[in-house]
Each structure stands twice: as structure tokens, then as C-alpha cells.
Specification:
About 35% of the residues lie in helices and about 15% in strands. The chain is α/β, with parallel strands linked by helices and about 375 residues long. The strands form two sheets. Strands 1-2-3-4-5-6-7-8 form an eight-stranded mixed beta sheet.
Length: about 375
């Protein structure tokens, strides 16, 4: 790419994101807690013509959608007091506006420099300093902290000790190493505001932490609960499925009333956690039931040729398909994208039950 081509490419990307997110983010009662700042502009929704060779999916339920985005492609709103959130309808960040500066939690690249615009918008309105003095990493993944470099070298970057170890291995200049780390708990107090950071063990990633704002009854935990939506594919591409499932209970054990989940367009309420837990329970039960599928046809078809992987693939795919069907039917219209990722989630739950829980189906101990 030549230097001359960058502005056009960047402009085209911004135009695409504005169009795409405008179609996703519509003003509804499902905003729940988010409060638009005075003077926030909202982009008009638009409908893009879809390619006819792409699949169709069920409509997104109104309750899953968030607030409309402004012309720059973001929404910033107050959660409570001096605690705010930012979204581009794909990702979310959270920040505290304090007397000494701003404490930001996560820096998703899709929001990028709009974080600076959102913070400037808030601090112009409340008269507090706009400089980001502290940046909390919830975990190491680049899709949530890949714009950390935007805030310069002198910001205090806080993360779990495992995040530092992993980022050392990544050596990504867009994700500078934390300057302060902790192992179990960290009480962050800046300019009369506070956040409680806690590590409850591996879940979505080995280092994913819980960020609680006790004065605002708000919990931010990323890639664990997805308000209004089914979890992202493969159960949030989590590295430890049993621990990820347990993390949902941990999240619900906090006395929060507002959840910042790190993804999609709206904040969460406690009912969202309850619905996701039912979805996971139903998915688990459905997978266990489907594991009674007769494996004989798969062994007969591929066994004579010695193609062991074909036996595994076709049988496990069939089990996942059978398990996903009733869950998709139950949650379509209840959780957005039930028909998009439930099959992937069923396949991942199946593998977890096999290798983590020891429920091996026809691949258990030979008689």
C-alpha cells in the first residue's frame, strides 16, 4: 500500500462500518441503562443489498439491539454517575471519568480512535480532564485491546500477571505490556473513583478478569455473557469450556445491575445472564441426548477403507446437528443469532463433554 492510498482506504473502511453498524443499531427500549449524552448525533439506518449467494438468517429480535450510532460510528452513554460505556455495535469499552483523568477498560480496534472522541465528548460535558491516565486490560486478546497503543507510552496499563506473560510472547506493538500487574485482586482508586479487579481462574482465556464498579453496581466481564445474543461461535472460542461455563455463575454471583459484556450493541441486565445460563443448560442436555446416535452406519461406510477421521467427522457432525436443532428452534426469536452459531456451539460442547467430562459415547472403553 502506498502512502497516497491510505486515506481513501481508511475512508472506505469507515464508510462501510458506518453503514453496517447503522443497520444493526436502532434506538429501542432495549438500551435499558445507557443514557445518550446531550447533543449526541444519530446516524440514519440504511439497508444494504445482500449478495444472493449468502445465507439468510432469522431476524434479530428488537430486544437484542442497542442504541443508534452517531456519524463517527459510535455511541457513548452514561451507565451511572461518572461511569460510561462506548460501543460500535460490535465491541464495547467502559470508562470512568475522574477528577484526575480517565480510567479506560479495554481498547477494541473496531472502536479505535472513536474512544478518544467519546471520552472528549463526555469530559467536555462534565468539565473533567480528558486524558486517559489508566488503561485496564481485561485479557490479552487483540480484538479487545488492540488499540492500546493509541493512548501513548505514559498511560498506566493494568492487567493480570498472566496477561503480561502472554503479551511478552506476542510482542505486539499495538498491545504494550502492562506496567502494573496483579495475581488475585487489585483495588484501583483514581480521582475519587474505584474499580475492583479480580481473577477467578481461566475461562474464555487463561487471563480473563472481572472488573467491578461497586459504586455503580456494574460488572464488566468480556466474552462470558452476551446480552440478548447467543455466545459467539465455539462457545466464545473459549480455551477452557468447563471453566467458561463456571464463569457465568461467577459473574452472576456479583451484585451487579448493569453488565458490560464487551460485545455487541447493548448493556446487559440480570435477566440476560439467566437466559444464557438456560441456553447453555439446554445445549448441554441436547448434546448429551444426541450422543446416543447409532454409530453403526459411520463405521460401516468408512471403516473398510481405514479412514478413521471420516468416521469421527461424520458421526460427530451428525451428533452436533441433531443436538443443535431443538435448541435453535427454542431460542430463535429469544436470543439473536440462535440459528447462526448454535451448531458451532453444539460441536464445541460435544468435544468438551468428550474430552473434559469423559462422556465418550461410542468411542468409550472397548468391551
Amino acid at each position: 500500500m502506498t502512502p497516497e492510498s491510505r486515506p481513501t482506504t481508511t475512508a472506505n473502511r469507515r464508510a462501510f462500518l458506518r453503514t453496517a453498524t447503522a443497520a444493526l443499531a436502532v434506538p429501542t427500549a432495549a438500551v435499558l441503562v445507557g443514557e445518550a449524552l446531550p447533543g449526541t448525533a444519530h446516524a440514519a439506518t440504511s439497508t444494504a443489498t445482500a449478495s444472493t449467494d449468502l445465507p439468510d438468517f432469522a431476524p434479530v429480535p428488537t430486544a437484542a439491539t442497542g442504541p443508534a450510532l452517531n456519524e463517527q460510528g459510535y455511541f457513548v452513554g452514561r451507565i451511572k454517575g461518572n461511569l460510561y460505556w462506548v460501543t460500535d455495535s460490535y465491541y464495547q469499552a467502559m470508562f470512568l471519568s475522574t477528577r484526575e483523568g480517565v480510567v479506560l477498560v479495554d481498547a477494541p480496534p473496531t472502536i479505535g480512535n472513536n474512544l478518544l472522541r467519546a471520552i472528549a465528548e463526555v469530559t467536555r460535558a462534565n468539565g473533567r480532564p480528558p486524558k486517559v491516565t489508566h488503561l485496564v486490560y481485561t485479557h490479552t486478546h487483540a480484538d479487545h485491546i488492540g488499540s492500546a497503543h493509541v493512548f501513548g507510552k505514559h498511560v498506566v496499563r493494568i492487567a493480570h500477571s498472566e496477561t503480561r506473560r502472554l503479551l511478552r510472547l506476542e510482542a505486539d506493538p499495538n498491545r504494550p505490556l502492562p506496567t502494573v500487574t496483579f495475581d488475585d485482586h487489585f483495588d484501583l482508586r483514581v480521582g475519587g473513583e474505584r474499580l475492583e479487579l479480580a481473577y477467578h481462574g481461566p475461562n474464555h482465556s487463561p487471563d480473563n478478569i472481572f472488573v467491578y464498579a461497586p459504586d455503580h453496581a456494574t460488572l464488566m466481564v468480556v466474552d462470558v455473557l452476551y446480552p440478548g445474543w447467543v455466545p459467539f461461535k465455539n462457545l466464545a472460542v473459549s480455551q477452557d469450556i468447563p471453566a467458561w461455563v463456571k464463569a457465568q455463575d461467577t459473574a452472576m454471583s456479583y451484585p451487579w445491575t448493569t453488565l458490560v459484556g464487551g460485545h455487541l450493541g447493548r448493556l446487559g441486565v440480570r435477566a440476560d445472564g439467566d437466559v444464557q445460563k438456560r441456553y447453555i443448560a439446554d445445549l448441554t442436555d441436547s448434546v448429551k441426548s444426541a450422543m446416543s446416535l447409532d454409530p453403526t452406519p459411520y463405521f460401516q461406510k468408512y471403516g473398510p477403507s481405514g479412514n478413521s477421521w471420516a468416521i469421527f467427522k461424520t458421526y460427530l457432525d451428525a451428533v452436533a446437528q441433531q443436538a443443535a436443532g431443538p435448541v435453535i428452534a427454542k431460542y430463535t426469536g429469544v436470543l439473536a443469532a440462535a440459528d447462526v452459531f448454535t451448531l458451532d456451539n453444539a460441536a464445541t460442547m460435544l468435544e468438551s463433554l468428550r474430552i473434559d467430562a469423559g462422556i465418550l459415547g461410542p468411542f468409550g472403553t472397548h468391551p
